[in-house]
Structure formats: C-alpha cells, structure tokens
Amino acid sequence: MFNLILFGPPGSGKGTQSENIIESFGLQHLSTGNLLRTEMGNQTELGMEAKRYMDAGQLVPDAVVIGMVGNFMDAKPDAKGFLFDGFPRTTAQCIALDALLKEKNNEINLVLALEVSEEELVKRLLGRGLTSGRSDDTNENIIRARIKEYHDKTTAVATYYAQFNKVVGITGEGTVETIYADLKKEIDGLLASQVEMDAASNE
Ligand code: ADP
User: Fold this and answer.
1) Ramachandran angles phi, psi of 147, nearest 5°
2) Which of 4, 36, 139, 165 is found 20 to 30 A from 109 (Cα to Cα)?
3) CA of residue 79 to ligand 1 center, whole Å
C-alpha cells in the first residue's frame, strides 16, 4: 500500500490537487471535509453534530472524525492506498491514524505540505465562497477562525510526521499545473525508491 497525506491550511489547494493525484496514482481519496458535508447533507446525527463546529470554523471533535475515518477505511478493503485530505488535523488524529494503518501492516509513506501565505488563503476562500455553496467560505470571520484553528492545532501534524522525516514542503502558489508537477515529482521519487528497496530485499 502507498499512503499519502496532502497537508496544508484551508484554501491551500488540497481538494484540487487531490483530484489530480488520485487519478494518476489510483489512490482512494479520503477527505474528511467531504465526508462531513455528506453527513450534514443527509442530516445524520453525526452530520448535525459536526455542523455546529464547522459553521463556527472550529474543528469537529477527534472522536467523531476518527470513527468516521475508520469506517471509511474498513469499507475499502481492496484500496491500493489512501490519499488523506484534511485529515489528520490534530496530534490525536495522527496517533489514531497510525494505529488504524498498523492494524493492516501499513503506514503513512509521505506527507506533502502545501505552503501558501495567509492573505492569499483568505482571498481564495472568499472567492470560492461566491460559487461553492459552502457557508464557511462566505464569512471572513469564519475563514480567519479556520486559519487560527490550523495554526493552533493542525500545524502540530507536520511536526509529528517530521520526527519520522516524512514531510516535504511544496510551494502552493503558482498554477495548478506547476504545483501538481512538483507534487508528482515527490510521489514518483518515493515510489521509485520503494521499488528499488523491494528489489534489493528480494535478492
Ligand atoms: P478546508 O480545508 O477548506 O477548511 P475542509 O473541507 O477540509 O475544508 O474542512 C471543512 C471543515 O470541516 C473544517 O473547518 C472543520 O470544521 C471540519 N473538518 C474537516 N476535517 C476535519 C478533521 N480532520 N478534524 C476536525 N474537523 C474537520
């Protein structure tokens, strides 16, 4: 299995780039934001609980998100790998994800961190709010609250994976194509080194 985390602040382009990556590499896309919005749309109990936090620009409680991720992974036993988008967002979520992967003798192979300035993020999110139908993108105060949550709780995710040398920073400003080329180069490089290691261990 090959498991990748696409990391970065709200508005850094994770959703857009995820589409490109899953198409090229055949990974299963796991976006907790999308899963939560589906739950909200279906007005499930989980969705109703999540909505209160999402509308305030706050993170949904870890237990809710972790349970949802575990169910999603269990439902895809044949996945050749996952692309995690918007998850993990706290250290507790990192630890839970490691445990879920370990049950299947797997691990996170790479964390690609998109880097974008705060003013650019706010501009992009307000722009997206004009057409996305996402209420959390239309109000600048909610956007700033989300960015604050990112700084307070989510940057710890990069610190967590950096201790295992798994994080590579990628400039998230430029065209979608050039950013994708930079991401793809890192994934290709890692896959090539895995093939070499497998060959060496079979000798
Ligand atoms: P963005 O990255 O643009 O903020 P997402 O769709 O990833 O958009 O997330 C939208 C909202 O969903 C977040 O502001 C948060 O409230 C909630 N959310 C998504 N993923 C998580 C997570 N892993 N942990 C807690 N809350 C989450």
Assistant:
1) -70, -35
2) 36
3) 23
Are 11 and 121 a contacting pair, CB within 8 Å?
Answer: yes
Mean of pLDDT over the chain: 96
Q: Which of 30, 60, 94 should be mutated for ligand 1, with most atoms under 8 A from CB?
A: 60
For CA atoms 148, 150, 154, 159, give the dihedral sign. negative
Task: Record the tokens describing residue 120, joined without a space.
Answer: 């650019």
**Integer Cα distance of 151 and 136 in angstroms:** 18
In angstroms, what is the span from residue 2 Cα to ligand 1's centroid? Answer: 23
With a 6 A CB cut-off, is 68 part of the ligand 1 pocket? no
Inter-residue contact 36 to 50 (CB < 8 Å): yes
For 6, residues 6+ apart whose C-beta sits below 8 A from its C-beta are 14, 17, 18, 21, 83, 84, 85, 112, 114, 183
Number of helices (H), then strands (E), belonging to the chain: the values are 9, 5
Looking at residues 29-51, what average pLDDT do you find?
Answer: 97
- The per-residue pLDDT for 57 is 97
